[in-house]
């Protein structure tokens, strides 16, 4: 597979644009499977009202992660609630904004899945500002690990991507193309890990009336 755009060798590492030229190289993770697995973890804890804060619709990775989330719900025979699906911009501000929108609903979710680590940080800030406890009142699961995630309280449960391997393979793809060697097949999708820490737990049981 060629890894060119016009006359320039190009490889997308992790994020890619919706409708990208199929001749452009791409290295990343199986975002649909990763989001499906993360959502299934929340379902296994007993969550049924799950909100999601996904990234921009122009990003193929964001689209794939949202599709994986919806796929997991449907596999569990749960109809996706469109009012629980929010789109942010992969930054703390939008994570905070959309988390507030979800948490101030009459029927708020018992868990939130953020498809980007910066949005997860914004969501955690919103949870704490509103006065809710994470994970006792609201579970939070993020996508992308980062070295200071364990310094937060609670320590965040996240999907970890093999960032080093993604970068190495993308670089090799470019070098192979420049030097005229047969390139690594594209897209190359690597496996992720669900890193379970402290920010998720089973939902509270409703108080008896």
Q: Would you kindly provide a written description of the structure presented here, covering whatever features stand out?
A:
The chain has 209 residues and is α/β, with parallel strands linked by helices. Helices cover 34% and strands 19% of the residues. The chain contains five helices and eleven strands. The protein has helices at residues 31-44, 60-75, 92-103, 117-130, 163-178; strands at residues 4-5, 8-9, 11-13, 25-29, 50-54, 85-87, 111-114, 139-143, 157-160, 188-190, 193-195. It has a six-stranded mixed sheet, with helices on both faces. Strands 3-4-10 form a three-stranded parallel sheet, covered by helices on one side. A two-stranded antiparallel sheet has the order 1-2. β5, α2 and β6 form a beta-alpha-beta unit. The termini are far apart. Residues 1-5 have low confidence and may be disordered.
User: What do the pLDDT scores average to?
Assistant: 89
CATH fold name of one domain: Rossmann fold
Point out poorly predicted stretches: 1-5
Terminal CA distance reads 63 Å
User: Tally of extended strands?
Assistant: 11
CATH-level-2 architecture of one domain: 3-Layer(aba) Sandwich
SSE order, as H and E? EEEEHEHEHEHEEHEE
Radius of gyration: 18 Å
| Widest beta sheet: strand line-up | 6-5-7-8-9-11
> How many H/I helical runs?
5
- Strand-residue fraction? 15-25%
Shape descriptor reads: elongated
Oligomer: single chain
